[in-house]
Design a protein that fits this description.
The complex is a heterodimer of chains A (about 425) and B (about 140).
Chain A: E1 4-9, E2 19-26, E3 29-37, H1 44-48, H2 56-61, H3 68-83, H4 89-120, H5 125-131, H6 133-154, E4 163-164, E5 167-168, H7 174-200, E6 213-216, E7 227-230, E8 235-236, H8 241-244, E9 245-248, E10 257-260, H9 269-276, H10 282-290, H11 303-324, E11 340-348, E12 351-359, E13 365-371, H12 373-392, H13 398-410, H14 416-419
Antiparallel strand pairs in A: 1-2, 2-3, 4-5, 6-7, 7-8, 9-10, 11-12, 12-13
Helix pairs in contact in A: 3-4, 4-6, 4-11, 5-6, 6-7, 7-11, 9-11, 12-13
Chain B: E1 4-10, H1 18-28, E2 36-42, H2 47-53, E3 57-66, E4 71-75, H3 93-103, E5 109-118, H4 132-142
Parallel strand pairs in B: 1-2, 1-3, 3-5
Antiparallel strand pairs in B: 4-5
The chains are: A alpha+beta (about 425), B alpha/beta (about 140).
């Protein structure tokens, strides 16, 4: 075999958005490796500048079709911080419930459509469905439950529209919430079985060292609130994110790389579970223990198990909220618009999603910064490839290397469209 | 007589909303050969399969990009070209129905009515072809009696 090889994955498949991987080998060692994200920049932060605060929530929801709730929740948290809104606990519970729907939908789709075919040797879920029809049907049922929750609370499942500063534009009818409760209870055994099934897959052992970063609260598994913590001891409020995390641009990607104290790090289900497995409810913790996999885990391929655990958790949490939820006196709290700087950080399905907004006194957006999880995971994906490919075997044929590299990338569930609205725009004006 | 479930697939944008306009027409007219139970679906992706699961007879109405001929016509599953692999954001009608067929999740009787739009994209506002649409639907529904 030639001592110099260039292996290209010209278009990554079964990921959201457009990206590619360039890998240059010399004497069976990696000379260069670049995850290229060439999805066009979308410039959402610039689009928000000069617009009224009331446009923010519905605008940022358009960044992503699979995690619009995450964008809405981080934005509303930041705006409510600026306006000093006192949000009713029942509204907070309803937002957490809505977020559960997004986790269930997103994770169920990734496990069954994108990741599982890799581990079972199929090129698509359609091919996999012939051998594993019951598992695919289960995935579709779980995804459908998440969708129903989003549609009920958000007005529609695609780009929901009900979240607003102070609460919701309308509250869901109690009878419809009760109907959902029965179906969520009935699905708990399926979610528990999914945890065991993902743990039984033949997952590659690619143990490696990496810092995990996630939110953490005193008493609950983190979704819509918490301090930012890391496995290396970081413990900061969301306002201090930019003091520790640095975004930089690389010439080959339209998405910024993000580092913690100069090094790559992991966000997402595996990082969350690594840092918060002691916050799982008893039933979910028992199902995780039964897998025999010990958390924290340093094998990135355990992400699929973490996603299944979070589906089980989200169903469990949804049942808990639905069983006790009582409608508040008003759908939204009153507030007065004022200027200031606000921060939001919540756990999107793919990891922490950080927002910062600066508003003028009349509520006009002066500046917006959005750091999504896929942007944060980019450097970690490249680092993972640097470690995993030599262990897989760089002497292997190009097709095998290409397929394995795609599998490594896909394991992070990258959402490239989310990650590409950060290109720094430099304008030179001739006088 | 048990109603036939009709789903209009679309979004609020451009020609993509024709599937929803079709549902508006279906609910305005009251002399169809069979009763119809009409629903508008907003880019359902794979969730369509959950909607279809409980139907015995269903009609799907969706706009599609035609090469050179506008019009309304019945499409077979084989005619729907399966394009790029499924992603979480973008499961098209063809891919979704191929998966549904593989899983045995499609209704016993399923008719796909396509509204052909000529152009480069679905961004342009286009009117629902009338009375052609009503004529095609009468033919489709009369076969489902």
């Amino acid at each position: 075999m030639s001592p110099n090889r260039t292996i290209e994955v010209p278009v990554l498949t079964r990921v959201e958005g457009e990206g590619a991987l360039d890998l240059r080998l010399r004497d069976d060692a990696i000379e260069s490796l670049q995850l290229r994200i060439f999805e066009p920049p979308r410039l959402f932060e610039k689009l928000l500048e000069g617009r009224p605060w009331g446009d923010v929530i519905d605008t940022v929801a358009r960044i992503c079709g699979i995690c619009p709730v995450a964008y809405q929740m981080s934005a509303v948290q930041a705006l409510e911080g600026i306006f000093g809104v006192d949000v009713d606990p029942a509204i907070r519970a309803l937002r957490r419930l809505m977020y559960c729907g997004e986790w269930i939908e997103s994770h169920a789709l990734h496990i069954h459509l994108l990741a599982a075919p890799d581990f079972l040797g199929f090129d698509s879920v359609t091919a996999m469905a012939e051998r594993y029809p019951d598992e695919v049907r289960r995935g579709l049922r779980l995804q459908g439950l998440g969708n129903r929750l989003l549609a009920l609370l958000g007005g529609r499942s695609v780009h929901p529209v009900s979240v607003c500063v102070g609460g919701f534009t309308r509250l869901p009818p109690k009878a419809q919430l009760d109907a959902l409760l029965e179906d969520f209870r009935a699905a708990l055994p399926e979610a528990e079985a999914l945890v065991a099934w993902t743990a039984s897959l033949d997952l590659p052992d690619m143990t490696q060292d990496f810092p995990s970063v996630a939110l953490r609260t005193d008493d609950a598994y983190p979704i819509e609130d918490g301090r930012i913590v890391s496995s290396e001891g970081l413990d900061i409020p969301r306002e201090a994110f930019a003091d520790h995390f640095t975004e930089t641009q690389v010439p080959y990607s339209n998405a910024l790389h993000c580092h913690l104290h100069g090094a790559p790090y992991l966000v997402g289900p595996l990082a969350r579970l690594n840092l918060n497995h002691d916050r799982l409810p008893e039933a979910v913790a028992q199902s995780l223990a039964a897998t025999g996999i010990r958390f924290p885990s340093r094998n990135p391929f355990h992400s699929i198990v973490a996603r299944a655990v979070e589906i089980f958790f989200a169903l469990h949490e949804a049942v808990r909220i639905l069983e006790s939820w009582q409608a508040p006196a008003a759908a939204r709290a009153d507030f007065s618009v004022r200027g200031g700087i606000g921060y939001g950080c919540t756990e999107a399905p793919r990891g922490i999603l950080w927002h910062r907004y600066e508003l003028a006194d009349d509520g006009t957006v002066r500046a917006a910064t959005i750091t999504p999880p896929t942007s944060q995971n980019q450097a970690r994906i490249e680092q993972d490839l640097h470690l995993a490919l030599p262990r897989f075997g760089l002497q292997r044929p190009d097709d095998e290397l290409r397929a394995f590299a795609e599998q490594v990338i896909r394991n992070y569930d990258p959402c490239i469209s989310c990650a590409t609205h950060f290109l720094r725009l430099k304008v030179d004006r001739a006088s | 007589m048990k109603p036939v479930t009709v789903f209009g697939i679309g979004s609020p944008f451009g020609a993509d909303r024709l599937g929803w306009e079709a549902i508006d027409v279906l609910t305005r007219v009251d002399d169809w050969p069979v009763p119809v139970d009409c629903h508008k679906l907003d880019r359902p992706g794979l969730a369509l399969l959950e909607q279809l699961r409980e139907c015995e007879r269903a009609v799907l109405i969706d706009a599609f990009l035609a090469r050179d001929e506008t019009g309304v016509r019945v499409l077979s599953l084989d005619e729907l070209a399966v394009g790029s692999p499924l992603t979480t954001h973008d499961a098209g009608l063809a891919e979704t129905l191929a998966l549904g067929e593989r899983l045995g999740m499609l209704p016993g009787e399923l008719v796909i009515v396509g509204i052909g739009v000529v152009g480069e994209s679905m961004d342009e506002e286009v009117a629902l072809p009338m009375p052609e649409f009503v004529d095609v639907m009468r033919g489709v529904l009369s076969k489902l009696i």
